[in-house]
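Sample entry follows:

:::
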Amino acid sequence: MSTSLSDLKPILKLFAREQKRGLLLGAAMSALTVGAGIALLGLSGWFITATAVAGLSAASAITFDVFAPSAGIRLLAIGRTASRYGERLSTHNATLSVLAALRERLFRGWAQAGAARDLARRPAKLLFRLTGDIDALDSLYLRVLVPVGVAIVAAIATSIALGLIHPLFGLSAGLLLLAAGLGIPLLAGRRAARHARRRAYGIEAVRARTIDLVAGQTDLLMAGRLDAQTAAIATANQYSSNADDCLNRMEAGVTIGFGVAATTLLTGSLLAVAALTGAGAISAPVAALGILIAFAAVEPFGALRRGALELGRMLLAAKRIGPRLSATMPIQQNAAPAGHFAFQLSGVCAGYGAEAPVLDDITLSLKSGEKLALVGASGAGKSTLMALLAAEIQADRGSVANHAATLLTQRTELFQDTLRGNLLLADPRATDDDLRQALLAAGLLADISALPHHLDTRLGEGGMGLSGGQSRRLALARLFLRDTPLWLLDEPTEGLDRATARDVMHRLSGKANGRSLVIATHIRREAAIADVIATLDGGRITRISRRGETAFEEALNRLRPD
């Protein structure tokens, strides 16, 4: 994947939009810290030398003012400490705020229908976007933007300060600082870009293959591929380690390059001040001031060392994340059906990019207010048809038209948040009264009211703190908060005990209030509330029966009993 500096534009726009003032303040504090450090070293050298020269005679020792320089040194030392603290506080606060906003924006984008399906299919790859890629951008401000700006300011300030001693001295020192200080990191960054990308790919491969190993270890063991998968992880890890070794060698080379540049600048400064002192143009204290300013001026460029080596990784991360920031993600929606239909499918073929489609030539419709049960063996295409109606996937062929739909998946997705926070995912504008009404309709209000903190009760990861039945009822309450005319239910009572399952189905049926329901199921109690049963087999509809027909009862009898 080719990268360029233009890939950073969406990221820089986000930085400026989210924390422009904080980022500028951090850069200013960093420049102030570096400036105070250079001035402190130069003034200290001048003061020590001037004191030594003044001590050569009693007259000069008596008249020499030690208070102003010492006060200046103390002021610079205290100011440097304060600015360093302010720099750390402002830069890290601004960076973390920007990265938090970036993670939120990406997460919201991947929470949309089509992207959510991709995330479910490729969790390791897309999770890396929320972790590794954003962590790479952490260094963009702290290790590239701020150090470059501060280094340029330091070079200009040093050139001006030394130019007051002698214009040619200042110009030469400034040009050497800019040429070596920026040229070395730029050259190293260009050479390290390939290795930085290799390292990022290697880490991503290690994570993806490790997740595959943990999630599919039973299948891998049955297929005799467990050792091969372990070897694949080791190979990816070695690939990443080799890239790390290359980057470490380049970092050592950059350190040597800066050392050579500093030595060259210091040697040139010694020769320059020696010549100027010998000619009587400057005094010994001023000569010491010039040497120490030149010596300290190289320090800001050292901060660019690691940032230059990670620039390739940053550009790769920006290349992958940037498109989701520069354009608004379109919300996938199916066309609207005819007025008296909840959905209409005509000659639909759909799948997940595989050669053979999961659904083949599906023609099916449901009138508004009716309830449809999709039955069939596992893998027949029920969940795919639900995803099609939810606009999580698009048809490869045929037409799909349906009203706005809400999908209740078989797995209850709860987050480590308060009960209120988990409910507000369904409707962020809902009031506490709305939440209580939804909980009441789901049969969970009494349980929540008995908790010490009620709606403010925090759940653990994955909804820990609630039983399986309570988790399902909480998901049901979220469904009730979604005011859509079509509800899609994927095995809504799977894993619940009989009493809880019957109560959930009773509440679902009662709360529908004229809405249309589509239920994918293997269980009789779930299909029993339907007006129509459609049987799927191998991605095709083999039979459609309506309540009151003999085929309807036959279809119910073939399902798993309550």
